[in-house]
Amino acid sequence: IAEKKYTSSFLPVVGALTLSELVFKIFKLKRIYSQIRSDNKRAMRFNSLFGYKRAEGEEGKESQIHYLTSESFFKATRKFFLLLKPLGFNTGNLVITLEPHDYQTDFGDKMEKLILDSGMNFKCEKHDGLTIFREAGG
User: Fold this and answer.
1) Which of 44, 52, 61, 96 fits 133 for a cystine, CB–CB 3.0-4.6 Å?
2) What is the reported pTM?
């Protein structure tokens, strides 16, 4: 989130939740990494709320590696999904929209394959040039 007026809003939380859920559920990554300056306490607090842990041997370094596993993410963020549920942001309601320009390269086709191969239950709709995958029953 580049614009200052949004950094203290709920948008960074929703963005981090959505991207992490996508990374773990669709891309099937087991672990993701973040590099944070040791003097950036705000970023460290933000990441720890999502379940990030500092990697071993990073103590005392100016720039530290932190990691997040799918297990620690879903355990740590259960409360966020409950708080954001009234706004429509809850796990089990993942919606992925692919636009026509996504298919101008092989991104759209590769993303569709990842979604379909994820083992998750998605319904696919196509209209107005969009391909929309909605998680069913999550």
Assistant:
1) 96
2) 0.73
